[in-house]
Amino acid sequence: MKNPFISVIIPVYKVEEYIEQCCRSVFSQSYNNFEVIIVDDGTPDRSIEIVENLLDGEFAAVKPRVRIIHQENKGLPSVRKVGVRNASGDYIIQFDSDDWVATDMLEKLAAATYDDPDVVICNYYNTYRYWKIPRREKQYPDKYQILDAMFSHRHFRAYLWNKLVKRSIYEGEEFFFPRYGMCEDMVIMAQVILRAQNIRFIKDKLYYYRKTNVKSLSKQRISKRNSEVILNKLDLWDFYEKSGDNSLKVLKDNYLLQVVWMAFNSNLPELLDDREEMKEYVKALSVDPKRTLEVKNQARLKDYIHYYELYKKTGDPSLIPKFHSDIKDKHSKQQPE
Known about the structure:
Elements: E1 6-12, H1 19-27, E2 34-40, H2 47-56, E3 66-70, H3 76-86, E4 91-94, E5 100-101, H4 105-111, E6 119-127, E7 132-135, H5 143-151, E8 163-166, H6 167-170, H7 184-195, E9 199-210, H8 222-243, H9 252-265, H10 276-287, H11 295-314, H12 319-332
Parallel strand pairs: 1-2, 1-4, 2-3, 6-9
Antiparallel strand pairs: 4-8, 5-9, 6-7, 6-8
Helix pairs in contact: 1-2, 5-7, 8-9, 10-11, 11-12
């Protein structure tokens, strides 16, 4: 596709320290055929005022291409949905408002759409206070290997901000937007990858991912964060099960294993109890942990499951933290096989 129209979606909530740098990098793009949809998620600070000042002053020429949508605070998944539903571009990309981008990012992504791919993926930098580290999304030969790597956190991340996605991928009521903020990008990107027929990787590092924002979702309390990750992953599995789409079943062992491991390792196994399929899967794992776990973690998972079953028989909730800490101590002292 030549010169595609691109919709840039930027969620805004409590980012007054960073929003100016983000918007400057977007408003200064060398590519002109794009719109910006800023979704104000009820931010209580000056973030939107800062954006408006930029548009009323230095970037007045860009203002006709920028829309600001206001809503009560509903969380990042709601913002994603609102942004996508209001986008009119041939392609969509979603930036985080505490990061920034190269001024030729859209130009280079657009140039890679010459034969109409469904997704274009670029590389990026992890940025810190005094340095930056280049990061690369590994290219895999098919979508299932991409997803396998993404679910296992191996060389491919679910970030939305470095992936230009054809708007038609998101269309239809059957696209599932998650309930919770943590890992919401994985839920969205899994569906994007499964629907895509043509995925292109380019070598350019075009996005600057800020790793020092202590207010970001990824810095939330660990138990809350892990709980949301587990529930979002379970919801995605349920979504595919109910729809009759077997796409995710190809990766069942890896996908469900990661969910079970996180639930037990985070001391949150009760999140699995109300799902019959998960109970059956846990029962099978108690006999034979899958080989996709590292050897040193297979025995630990068996112990977690065993002691959790004991707890459910006795009904004593005080046992869970004790079993959890004892198991961690036991296995941390053992050397990997």
